[in-house]
């Protein structure tokens, strides 16, 4: 049955992987320890259709804080340092997670200081079509060029450009902090595991990862 971006997100512990029988390992097995705040990539812009923002990365402190952590990491590219627990209170995050991207967008707007800086965009279909993927690419480029990061609600398994898989069958939130090749490849900041704090992914794979859910964008 098709779901919408209002779909409740049940978050998985950092590092679990999908198997034929379900998710390997108990969901309470891994609480990601906060990493020291550090700049991962420098803000840069070139003539080759690329830009990456300076994110002051912080890992999520438990298995259900990925929504607040993704928003905190996203806002850090604007030079803001907001406590992740304060973010969680504003989003209504519980041990069941953060309900939807619609709970994150208003907080991003409040902390950015502009009422319409962010809006929620839904990819309601089980798989993103070309139009939805092209819109996501345009939204990422526009948002990053404005000095902001995109926050996306994803679910399932996706493969990055190095061939590594990232599995969040119950749902997860990530930040998109940069792009290459005019947005055909994006850079993701993922609060789940500081050992894989950032990675790159094709826009097609990201769009399919967001499918049935949504993202916050300028």
Silhouette: globular
Number of strands: 12
Indicate how many domains the architecture comprises: 1
Please tell me the CATH architecture by its name: Alpha-Beta Complex
Sheet of most strands? 8 strands, antiparallel
Characteristics:
Cathepsin B, Chain A; two-stranded antiparallel sheet; alpha+beta; disordered N terminus; 218 residues; eight-stranded antiparallel β-sheet; 12 strands
How would you portray this structure in words?
The structure is a single chain. The chain is α+β, with helices and mostly antiparallel strands and 218 residues long. The chain has a single domain (31-217), classed as Cysteine proteinases (Cathepsin B, Chain A), CATH 3.90.70. It is 23% helix and 27% strand. It has 5 helices and 12 strands. Strands 4, 5, 7, 8, 9, 10, 11 and 12 form an 8-stranded antiparallel beta sheet that branches. A two-stranded antiparallel ribbon has the order 1-2. Strand 8 and strand 9 (165-180) form a beta hairpin. Helix 1 crosses helix 2 (84-91) and helix 4 packs across helix 5.
């Amino acid at each position: 049955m098709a779901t919408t971006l209002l779909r409740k997100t049940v978050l998985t512990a950092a590092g679990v992987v999908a198997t034929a029988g379900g998710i390997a390992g108990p969901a309470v097995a891994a609480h990601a320890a906060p990493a020291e705040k550090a700049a991962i990539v420098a803000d840069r812009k070139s003539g080759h259709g690329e830009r990456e923002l300076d994110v002051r990365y912080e890992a999520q402190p438990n298995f259900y804080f990925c929504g607040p952590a993704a928003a905190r990491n996203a806002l850090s590219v604007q030079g803001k340092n907001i406590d992740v627990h304060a973010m969680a209170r504003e989003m209504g995050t519980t041990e069941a997670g953060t309900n939807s991207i619609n709970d994150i967008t208003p907080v991003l707007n409040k902390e950015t200081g502009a009422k319409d800086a962010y809006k929620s965009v839904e990819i309601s279909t089980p798989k993103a079509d070309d139009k939805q993927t092209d819109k996501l690419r345009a939204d990422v480029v526009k948002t990053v060029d404005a000095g902001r990061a995109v926050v996306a609600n994803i679910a399932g398994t996706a493969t990055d450009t190095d061939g590594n898989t990232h599995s969040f069958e119950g749902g997860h939130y990530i930040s998109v902090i940069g792009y290459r090749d005019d947005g055909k490849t994006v850079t993701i900041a993922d609060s789940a595991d500081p050992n894989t704090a950032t990675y790159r992914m094709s826009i097609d794979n990201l769009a399919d990862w967001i499918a049935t859910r949504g993202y916050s964008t300028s």
